[in-house]
Write a structure and sequence with these properties.
This protein is of the alpha+beta class. It is built from ten helices and ten strands. Helix 1 crosses helix 4 and helix 4 packs across helix 7. InterPro entries: Di-copper_centre_dom_sf (IPR008922), Tyrosinase/Hemocyanin (IPR050316), Tyrosinase_Cu-bd (IPR002227).
Length: 327
Amino acid sequence: MHSSDEFFILACSIVYRQTIAPNKYDTLALIHTGITLCSVHQGSNFLGWHRVYLLLYETALRQKDKSVVLPYWNSVLDNQNITPAINTVLFTKDFIGNGKGDVIEGPFKHWRDIYNCSLIRNIGRKGYPLPSPEIVETIENDISVFLVKDVIDHFGNNETTKTIEGQHNIPHDWVGGMMDILSSSPKDPAFFLHHAYIDYLWEQFREKQQFLGVDPEYCPGLGVVSVNNTKLVYNLTLFHASHRQMDCFHWMNSIDGYSKNYTQYLYAYEDSPTYPNCGNSKYLTWNTVLKRCIGINPVSSTASLSLKPLHGRLIEFLLFVFFCKFF
């Protein structure tokens, strides 16, 4: 029997390997390129657009196997001071493959993109930590932080590390390789595990908004005012306007990404592991000093592989198309 996470890996491999180039996986990865990058980063559309993107990706996987759910990688659990974060069990042959150099182990070994470039990683680059548990705790639970403008990057300065998008940037840098470049990052399946966690974090924030009586469906339409890109200067506020059509998903507007319908009708998240049993995972342990679950060193673990799905999302392709057209 496969666990749900193993089904994800199996289905992801099938989507990649058994279709003609550019295959379905390549096509999905190419969505996250070009002018689209202007409208899906550094502003309020970052959250909603990537939610739709994840749903489209998961739907493609579920076309291969309806048992698949998209798991999330809570990278905060690897940000700890007991064993080096580089020893995370995620980047081993039993999970998504090695984290240094060309990926030559695991289910995605020897992957190549449409330009015949190999899948490359460089995890644990010096100077690039993983997300801060303190900042994530603030986003999830601090009642003084409850507006979307508080958790999106629309200033383009150092304060953005305290936002959801700012915390999102850190694992991209930490994994390195293809994940370090916006246009190539979806070519690594780690991208979707990472973004599923960012979506989970946003959902935690939205639940806090509802508890405080704040409308989670409000999309402020904010973006960085000026971004220099060699020859051009972009005003990203225009790209993040609430009623602007989503790039690549033209049947939807930016505001549609903020709808409650996703987690009300289509999928739900399982809570991240916590005290006292850390989700009964043999790859996590409760640290009495840090007072949180942390990842263990897989090298020192003799436990057999047993992946536990961290969240389930239920969606059929036709339902997805119907839902999007009649928002």
